[in-house]
């Protein structure tokens, strides 16, 4: 491990874009020297009162995860921003989370870490994992506290409170992961609002955690 | 407004091909009266609008209801509840399916009342319900789909030795007719609701599909058994195919709208009733979610009515006229090619196809691309319609000449195709033969059969849906095998060597 950039020589790029753009991003990433990416489906929220009344506020999104050395990641992020103009409305969002170690990828070399030292943390990524159907409540609470919206990923998993067998098949209940990006200043109030709304402290109601984000494009 | 424009754009692209092809035919080989053309264009507009609204409705209403109901069934942890409730659900949903009533009415007419309309609706619904309950148990017990399908189609093969060719055509059509625009999304969601809880994600993915396929064999078996029991060997009556002539441009729309509205409402009623019962007994969803689902059901209703009006009032007459004119042409190749082109493009505007392809993409996280499935489906249905056209032209060729080798091939292929694709392929068979095919393409083949002396309007018309239900099975399994070959990881060995 090269020590020039602290503990974090790598970055995890997370890019949330409209349906269909994931594959294009993957190609751009590959041209920039990243050897692979993972794409998941999720849904985003729309900020429109009329559509909300009509119950038409779900938008299909694709979430792209890319692991890369720090410098490569930042270059790629800039290039993607040129291509997709994340700062315009409805063009998606892209951000980086520092990563300490990467295994299993030969193209991710820690040596290519540039501009030493960590950026000052300006943003946070808030993850909330709740039972299916509760994501809306989380996003509503976050919006009330000043967030601009969120992305929902369908998932499954089980805590210790869930029965694990029905008939002879093993069961893992459906979950939803809500991903919200917030400015560091607002993180605390958003987190509190979510905690109050879904009473996350009570057992079985879900789990929430916050990560530092090194760079963000597309948050207005 | 992003969401709305996106959906409208997507649906417009789906309806555009069929519109363009009909317009091309109009200026080249099959000129159609100008009133009909305007009706056709208005119909296309209604279809775009209706389909968009319908798809929103399915997303918000039908799918969540099916999913919640499926999940709450499985959570009872009792086989008999799953079997009995699954049976009741499928029975009432299929009982209300408008397509089934139309088919039953036709069968009643052509057998001169030997097989009555009520009895056929009842028996087919029983058949479907029984098979849905078997299909649900299959998902729970992890029985491979290809084995279940082999057994079911084996039974059908046995029965087919005792049925007349007309009854066989009707029975295969019944399977297509009963899996209509509402039943398919509901059954798909039900299967997803049951299988999504599985821990093994591979099984959970592939078991989400296949329930529609199993359900549709229920209809085939039911009709075959009925025709054997009733002893209806010969088709005696004939069908009224000539529609009433309308002089005014808007006439057919005004006339069809109320009828279709009532039909759609009847079709939706069991779903609403099921949902209310489940909500009171086990679901207990929050007020917000309830509101969302009821708005979804409202969208489904509005969308379905607009869509069906567009198809019935705008598309059907044009289909018949084109079929008649093209079949009269000297060069028979043009007729077969037209059939191919119409099949190719019609399927894109089929509502259940949108629902299925969206589900596939969602469940496989985009691994199986919508476009790939659509392309395979399109080609399959194109071939199916082209083959049906051949059958109309050549009097010696019978339906079973295609069905027997076709299904034999499809069943054998299930043993080589990835599990996920087996379910998708057999589901798409029921999905492909939806309202668009059952009206527009059927009108086309019937029009053509009128023009060809040796063809029998009824028999040749009936068999077409059976063909449309068969070809996607083969086309999508071919796609599955291609996927299997293409997604082997390349360059792995080289990388390993370099590491050493």
Characterization of the model:
- Chain A has five helices and eleven strands.
- Chain A is α+β, with helices and mostly antiparallel strands.
- Chain A has two domains: 10-99, 2-Layer Sandwich (Alpha-Beta Plaits); 123-213, Alpha-Beta Plaits (2-Layer Sandwich), CATH 3.30.70.120.
- In chain A, the strands form two sheets. In chain A, strands 10-5-9-6-2-3-1-4-11 form a nine-stranded antiparallel beta sheet. A two-stranded antiparallel sheet of chain A has the order 7-8.
- The longest helix of chain A is centred in the middle third of the chain and has 15 residues, at 70-84.
- Chain B has 500 residues and is mostly helical.
- Chain B has one domain (2-499).
- The radius of gyration of chain B is 22 Å and the shape is globular.
- Chains A and B meet through strand 2, strand 3 and strand 8 of A and helix 1, helix 2 and helix 12 of B.
Name some characteristics of this structure.
heterodimer, A: 220 residues, alpha+beta, Alpha-Beta Plaits, 2 domains, 9-stranded antiparallel sheet, two-stranded antiparallel sheet, 5 helices, globular, B: 500 residues, mainly alpha, 20 helices, 81% helix
Tell me the layout of helices and strands.
The complex is a heterodimer of chains A (220) and B (500).
Chain A (H helix, E strand, L loop, with lengths): L9 E9 L3 H10 L6 E8 L3 H5 L4 E12 H15 L8 E7 L23 E9 L3 H10 L6 E6 L8 E2 L2 E2 L3 E10 H15 L8 E7 L1 E3 L3
Antiparallel strand pairs in A: 1-3, 1-4, 2-3, 2-6, 4-11, 5-9, 5-10, 6-9, 7-8
Chain B lengths: L1 H26 L6 H41 L4 H17 L2 H13 L6 H25 L3 H16 L4 H14 L4 H13 L5 H7 L3 H20 L20 H33 L3 H42 L3 H15 L4 H13 L6 H24 L5 H15 L5 H14 L2 H17 L5 H30 L5 H8 L1
Helix pairs in contact in B: 1-2, 1-13, 2-8, 2-11, 2-12, 3-5, 3-11, 4-5, 4-7, 5-8, 5-10, 6-10, 7-10, 7-17, 7-19, 9-17, 10-17, 11-12, 12-13, 12-18, 13-15, 13-18, 14-17, 15-18, 15-19, 16-19, 17-19, 18-19
């Amino acid at each position: 491990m090269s020590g020039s950039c602290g503990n974090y020589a790598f970055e995890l790029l997370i890019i949330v874009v409209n349906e269909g753009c994931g594959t294009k991003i993957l190609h751009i990433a590959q041209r920039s020297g990243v050897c692979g990416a993972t794409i998941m489906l999720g849904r985003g929220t729309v900020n429109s009162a009329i559509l909300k009344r009509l119950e038409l506020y779900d938008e299909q999104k694709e979430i792209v995860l890319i692991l890369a050395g720090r410098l490569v990641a930042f270059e790629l992020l800039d290039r993607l921003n040129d291509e997709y103009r994340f700062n315009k409305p409805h063009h998606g969002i892209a951000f980086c989370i520092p990563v300490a170690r990467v295994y299993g990828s030969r193209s991710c070399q820690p040596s290519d870490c540039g501009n030493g030292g960590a950026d000052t943390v300006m943003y946070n990524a808030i993850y909330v994992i709740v039972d299916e159907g509760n994501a809306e409540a989380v996003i509503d609470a976050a919006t009330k506290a000043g967030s601009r919206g969120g992305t929902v990923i369908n998932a499954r998993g089980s805590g210790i409170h869930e029965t694990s067998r029905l008939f002879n098949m093993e069961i893992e209940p459906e979950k939803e992961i809500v991903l919200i990006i917030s400015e560091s200043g607002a993180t605390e109030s958003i987190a509190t609002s979510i905690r109050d709304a879904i009473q996350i402290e009570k057992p079985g109601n879900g789990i929430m955690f916050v990560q530092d984000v090194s760079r963000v494009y597309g948050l207005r | 407004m992003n969401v709305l424009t996106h959906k409208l754009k997507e649906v417009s692209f789906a309806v555009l091909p069929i519109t363009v092809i009909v317009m091309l035919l109009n200026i080249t080989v099959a000129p159609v009266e100008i009133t009909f053309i305007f009706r056709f264009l208005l119909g296309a507009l209604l279809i775009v609008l209706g389909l968009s609204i319908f798809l929103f409705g399915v997303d918000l209403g039908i799918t969540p209801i099916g999913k919640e109901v499926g999940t709450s069934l499985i959570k009872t942890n009792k086989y008999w509840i799953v079997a009995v409730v699954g049976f009741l659900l499928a029975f009432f949903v299929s009982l209300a399916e408008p397509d089934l009533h139309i088919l039953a009415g036709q069968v009643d007419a052509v057998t001169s009342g030997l097989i009555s309309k009520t009895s056929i609706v009842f028996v087919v619904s029983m058949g479907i319900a029984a098979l849905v309950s078997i299909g649900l148990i299959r998902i729970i017990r992890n029985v491979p789909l290809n084995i279940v399908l082999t057994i079911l189609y084996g039974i059908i093969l046995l029965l087919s030795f005792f049925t007349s060719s007309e009854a066989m055509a009707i029975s295969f059509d019944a399977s297509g007719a009963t899996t209509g625009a509402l039943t398919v999304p509901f059954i798909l969601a039900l299967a997803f609701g049951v299988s999504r809880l599985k821990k093994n994600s591979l099984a959970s993915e592939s078991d989400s599909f296949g329930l529609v396929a199993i359900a549709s064999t229920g209809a085939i078996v039911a009709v075959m058994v009925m025709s054997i029991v009733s002893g209806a060997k010969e088709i005696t009556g004939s069908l009224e195919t000539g529609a009433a002539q309308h002089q005014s441009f808007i006439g057919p729309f005004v006339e069809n709208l109320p009828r279709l509205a009532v039909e759609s409402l009847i079709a939706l009623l069991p779903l609403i009733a099921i949902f209310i019962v489940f909500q009171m007994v086990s679901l207990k969803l929050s007020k917000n979610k309830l509101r969302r689902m009821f708005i979804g059901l409202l969208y489904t209703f509005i969308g379905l009515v607009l869509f069906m009006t567009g198809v019935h009032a705008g598309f059907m007459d044009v289909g018949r006229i084109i079929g008649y004119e093209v079949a009269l042409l000297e060069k028979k190749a043009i007729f077969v090619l037209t059939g191919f082109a119409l099949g190719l493009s019609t399927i894109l505007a089929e509502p259940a196809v949108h629902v299925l392809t969206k589900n596939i993409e969602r469940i496989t996280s985009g691994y199986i691309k919508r476009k790939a499935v659509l392309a395979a489906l399109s080609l399959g249905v194109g071939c199916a319609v082209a083959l049906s056209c051949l059958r109309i032209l050549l009097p010696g060729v019978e339906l079973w000449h295609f069905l027997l080798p076709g299904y034999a091939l499809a069943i054998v292929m299930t043993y080589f195709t990835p599990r996920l694709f087996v379910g998708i392929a057999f589901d798409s068979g029921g999905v492909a033969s939806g309202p668009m095919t059952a009206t527009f393409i059927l009108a086309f083949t019937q029009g053509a059969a009128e023009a060809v002396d040796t063809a029998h309007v009824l028999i040749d018309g009936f068999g077409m849906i059976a063909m449309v239900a068969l070809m996607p099975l083969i086309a999508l399994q071919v796609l599955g095998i291609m996927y299997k070959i293409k997604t082997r990881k390349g360059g792995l060995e080289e990388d390993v060597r370099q590491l050493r």
